[in-house]
Amino acid sequence: QVQLVESGGGLVQPGGSLTLSCVASGSILGINVMAWYRQVPGKQREMVARHFKDGIYNYPDSVKGRFTISRDNAKNTVYLQMNNLKPEDTGVYYCATNWLGINYWGQGTQVTVSS
What we know:
about 0% helix
């Protein structure tokens, strides 16, 4: 079983930056994929960043060039660096992974982009 705990959300002005962290309960060294998703009320949860351990990264066009996912295997932590934030980036951000065929999610952290 994998437990994921996110932190780092908050209120930021448009154009600002935030870094989210996701700490896993165990080693992520052997986990193939780690990802960040965003949920906005009334909309489907969408993937905003995904990293495969072989070095492949996926980003949707809406965040490409502004968001960066990275992982620190020694700290069992995955990060999401978000720059040039826009009001439409507002939402609850979830860390996620798949381990042995089971999807795991964190509890989410709120990001609000507003002046």
